[in-house]
Amino acid sequence: MVRRTANSLVGEYAKVLKARPELLRPLFDFLLAGLGEGADGEAASAAAGSLKAVMKRCGKLMGGALAQLAAELARARAAGALRAGAELDVLEGLCHVASGLEDPAAAAGALRALAQPLGDKLAEYASAGGETKDIKMELDRLTVVVRYTKLKIPSQMEHPTVELIQAVIPIFDGILNHIESNASAVESLCRCYKHAVRSTRKRSAPLLRPLGTQLLARFRRRPHAAYLYAASILVTELARTDEHIADLFQLCESFSIETFQQLQTFDQYTAMPDLVEEYFFFIARFLSYCPGPLLASPVVDTIVQGGIVGLQLRHREAQSGILTFFEELVSTGIETPHNKQAAEYMARLEPVLAARGAALVGGLVGAVAGALPAYALDDRDAGGSAAGVLWKLFHLSEPALRTWLVPAVNQISASVATVAEKEEFTTKLMNQADRDRFCDVIYDFARLCHQRSRKWHQR
């Protein structure tokens, strides 16, 4: 217990050590010795946490010791001295040290040195298979490397993280042959892709086609939601560059076709809420970054119809994804300083809303009145909500919303709202120019309906 406390205490002083580099060597040796205490896993874990803290704070002062640190980690791992979380702590610390190297070539070499043994082990698993838990652990290690090794690489140099992922894409394909039935393991693999793309941002462009192709092919075999999330990160990082939009749209359209092959009945929505959630967040992200191609495609009508069906789903995250999608969809037609193409988008959006607006508003009003689930009825700070979609529609076209709203409100059961209350709600709502007041009207009416509905069912 004394050694564990001492190990933890060093980490608390990591910030001070940055200003007292002469203390680094003895304290660092003390922590490294702590890793060897296999008999006391808690003490070793405390040493690992403090090593991470020291390396994160003082990484630029420790580049010369990187090889020794990596060797100590390998030794502790081989001896079984570290719990999984503690090992990842030390590995993260090593990544911070590598990130602090000023010379780009040295930093790139450090990344390769950290990743090479992990890639070699993953290649073995790709060929011969292995225990899923062991494969996941190796994937988690590689994810730490690509996530926390943040390199400043000149544009004329190939980014080493991109080179690393290019090398592991075929290895991951082999691994997926062994783990694709395990959703958690697939998530671990896709998490590695996510952080690799995020850490390289626009420099990840060479990954777009090979990674997109792999994600889509694997999704066709088994529709894991993780593939959609990984694809959405490509949109986030690359959609601001015009040259990538065509490839991203092709990916979006292909995923849409495959998704709705899986979601042909409401029972399928109910059975795969994670797929519903990630798909609609993926489409919302695409609309946020580059809506033009999707709005011009016939597939947008299919997506809207699918979203309307999904409003009935009793799953908080899935409904949040759907409502976020509808907010982004309607927002494309609203002119703002950041949306100068609103008129063009509106021309493409109008036929879709003309065909589906009544059903959409009917679904939203059903949620407000309690006939449908409404987990995100009024969530002004966290993205999609029923009130948010109605507000966007009001802002887009007040006459159109009124046309759809009145018959939808009239369909509300008399057991939860009288004719006078429904008329008052419609009148109040359509006379609110402020978003907060608009949402408050919806919230108050929803509370009335839900209270009445509970009393009705208790009779």
Properties at a glance:
mainly alpha; 23 helices; 76% helix; elongated; TPR_TNPO3_IPO13_4th; protein transport; ARM-like
Provide structural commentary:
With 459 residues, the protein is an all-alpha fold. The protein has a domain at 1-100. Helix content is 76%, strand content 0%. It is built from 23 helices and no strands. The protein has helices spanning 2-12, 14-19, 24-35, 41-58, 66-78, 84-99, 104-128, 132-148, 160-179, 183-200, 208-221, 225-238, 242-262, 266-271, 273-289, 292-295, 299-310, 316-331, 342-369, 386-396, 398-410, 419-429, 435-458. It is elongated. The mean pLDDT is 90.
| Mean pLDDT score | 90
| Radius of gyration of CA atoms, rounded to a whole number | 27 Å
Range of strand content: under 5%
Derived from helix and strand composition plus strand pairing, the structural class reads: mainly alpha
